[in-house]
Design the sequence.
């Protein structure tokens, strides 16, 4: 059984009166509905305002199909939702399998039958966004108008059970809701003296005299631990910094600083007060004002250095910020304020030169897509994922390219429907990412024939920082009697196509260093749209220390010799990164551990046998297509460490190595 939540309004309210929940089949939400099973539950969060503007006629058409009166539905919505006071009044339970329903206007909907259960005490919009069981990423998406493709989100297991239980209690219900607050430093570890006892999920934005430590979260009762980036500027100086940056910002900078300015003034006031803790009542205020403040300050530091132009050309206000109070603007803020420390916070502990992240972060902020190049195992895919998480959280897709790729894999093509056999356009991985507003990582991108797989996308891969660059592309496909178009726009909301390239969207590709020569086979039109960032091996000294630390189960000469052999392997004719060498170390460690209690024997009595076996299993596949000279070089390097290696194990290694060479 799975739990979901949906951000909707009158367009979801009306079908529910007919015991249906659904979405137009040309939206990515329809794919999520297709995964729903009987017994799954949906927590709907209804928008404060039922008005649809240009979509009013569409909702009227739905009402007619259900035999309902639009004005009555509108009035019923206003009365029950009460402008967000009762934003979460129901839980829906899926009561049947998904199917396509053609009774809806324009395009069919993918729908599921539902059973509706009223909550005794509905949640308000404010309460919903602060629910402890609502992941922060969903609260961020739903605090304003949800972006296209993100209206339906999965909830943690059993979340709706707890949310339903707390709905039996009248407000206030503090155990159900996160507490959001400003906290002075000290105290950080124990807040009992301040009359505060944080519970799991509570958030605090910590302020000190000479810096702003930033976001902390309660993971253990009564304590707070750091979660976000710090600001190394005294809080009293922040209002002036934000103001100076705002005076120098251009419209193309997307520096909407109204929320940041208000938050910086609040922090300056708070640090001067006698208070230790100050509550923040609304999640949007806390998120936009404080959680995003480090990114705004990062951008402000850059803008404040500009020469002040004569004549004010751009002056965003707090009201403009409120108009763009949604996930799309938050991601744009994250991108423009992206820092090395923000990317590092998303990385596991890997050995990485500082220049790599500096180059990648700067290129992304400058509007470029990325190609990360380096030996296998250096963490290119890990770095790509960390950069994505630092900007868009979990909203990114990953694919591995193959030589067989064509535009069918990247753009899409016609596929027969299961129900009727009729051909219908199915988007490929790039269009699916654009439809959902998700970043895209393509591993080993050079394996694909770039012109064949990505050619029609070259125009749209122009600098993403400029949404006006390039032209819209009309593809030779149709769906629901409409041409499939990829468009460039400032925002996905309100765009003329579901496939939108916005200033925040990025594609990150990876390729192995030994394939770097294939960069010259990549189309120049493709390459000039990317910044190519090298991800090198650690230095020999750093690498040797890493491998030594990984070999904790080996002792004496065995540990010394395998470490030296590992370095020879890493810097051999085919360089290998730490991820592969760590696998070899872990295999060797496990091989010498006694696992048979009765015989008290390890899998390998000789650590060298375990190590050479690990090379055969983990390193030899990286030599596929190598030359005889490369193989001889590798074997010679290993023989320098062990002139007389174990004969049987060595013979097996040679056979495996020669089998993968270029014939």
Sequence:
């Amino acid at each position: 059984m799975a739990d979901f939540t949906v951000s909707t309004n009158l367009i979801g309210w009306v079908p529910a009166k007919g015991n249906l929940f659904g979405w137009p089949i040309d939206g990515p939400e329809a794919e999520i509905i297709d995964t729903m099973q009987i017994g799954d539950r949906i927590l709907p969060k209804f928008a404060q305002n039922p008005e649809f503007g240009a979509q009013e006629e569409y909702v009227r058409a739905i009402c007619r199909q259900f035999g309902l009166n639009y004005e009555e539905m509108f009035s019923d919505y206003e009365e029950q939702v009460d402008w967000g006071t009762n934003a979460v009044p129901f839980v829906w339970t899926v009561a049947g399998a998904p199917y396509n329903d053609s009774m809806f206007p324009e395009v069919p909907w993918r729908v599921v039958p539902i059973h509706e259960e009223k909550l005794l005490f509905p949640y308000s919009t404010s309460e919903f966004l602060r629910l402890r069981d609502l992941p922060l990423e969903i609260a961020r998406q739903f605090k304003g108008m949800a972006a296209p493709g993100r209206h339906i989100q999965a909830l943690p297991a059993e979340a709706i059970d707890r949310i339903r239980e707390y709905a039996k209690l009248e407000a206030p219900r503090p155990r159900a809701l996160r507490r959001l607050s400003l906290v002075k430093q000290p105290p950080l570890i124990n807040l009992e003296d301040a009359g505060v006892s944080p519970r799991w999920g509570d958030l605090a934005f910590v302020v000190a005299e000479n810096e702003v430590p930033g976001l902390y979260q309660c993971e253990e009762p009564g304590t707070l631990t750091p979660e976000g980036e710090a600001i190394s500027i005294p809080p009293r100086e922040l209002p002036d910094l934000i103001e100076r940056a705002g005076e120098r910002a251009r419209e193309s900078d997307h520096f909407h600083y109204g929320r940041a300015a208000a938050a910086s003034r609040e922090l300056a006031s708070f640090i001067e007060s006698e208070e230790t803790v100050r509550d923040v009542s609304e999640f949007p205020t806390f998120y936009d004002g404080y959680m995003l403040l480090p990114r705004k300050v990062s951008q402000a530091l850059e803008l404040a250095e500009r020469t002040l132009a004569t004549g004010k050309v751009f002056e965003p206000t707090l009201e403009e910020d409120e108009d763009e109070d949604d996930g799309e603007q938050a991601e744009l803020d994250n991108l423009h304020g992206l820092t090395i420390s923000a990317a590092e916070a998303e990385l596991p502990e890997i050995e990485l030169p500082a220049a790599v992240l500096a180059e990648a972060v700067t290129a992304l902020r400058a509007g470029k897509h990325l190609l990360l190049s380096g030996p296998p195992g250096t963490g290119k895919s890990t770095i790509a994922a960390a950069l994505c998480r630092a900007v868009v959280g979990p909203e990114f897709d990953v694919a591995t390219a193959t030589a067989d790729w064509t535009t069918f894999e990247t753009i899409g093509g016609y596929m027969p429907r299961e129900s009727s056999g009729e051909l219908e356009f199915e988007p490929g991985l790039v269009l699916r990412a654009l439809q959902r507003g998700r970043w895209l990582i393509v591993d080993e991108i050079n394996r694909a024939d770039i012109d064949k797989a990505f050619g029609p996308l070259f125009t749209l891969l122009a600098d993403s920082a400029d949404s006006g660059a390039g032209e819209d592309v009309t593809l030779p496909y149709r769906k629901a009697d409409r041409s499939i178009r990829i468009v460039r726009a400032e925002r996905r909301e309100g765009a003329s196509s579901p496939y939108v390239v916005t200033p925040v969207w990025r594609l990150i590709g990876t390729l192995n260093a030994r394939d770097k020569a294939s960069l010259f086979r990549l189309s120049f039109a493709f390459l000039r749209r990317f910044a190519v960032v090298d991800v090198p091996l650690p230095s020999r000294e750093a690498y040797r220390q890493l491998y030594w630390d990984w070999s904790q189960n080996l002792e004496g000469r065995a540990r010394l010799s395998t470490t030296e052999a590992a370095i020879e392997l890493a810097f051999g004719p085919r360089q290998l990164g730490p991820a592969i060498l760590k696998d070899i170390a872990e295999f060797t460690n496990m091989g010498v551990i006694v696992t048979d209690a009765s015989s008290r024997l390890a899998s390998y009595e000789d650590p060298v046998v375990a190590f050479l076996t690990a090379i055969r299993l983990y390193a030899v596949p990286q030599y596929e297509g190598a030359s005889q000279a490369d193989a001889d070089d590798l074997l010679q390097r290993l023989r320098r460490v062990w002139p007389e290696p174990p004969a049987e194990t060595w013979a097996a290694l040679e056979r495996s190595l020669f089998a993968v060479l270029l014939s």
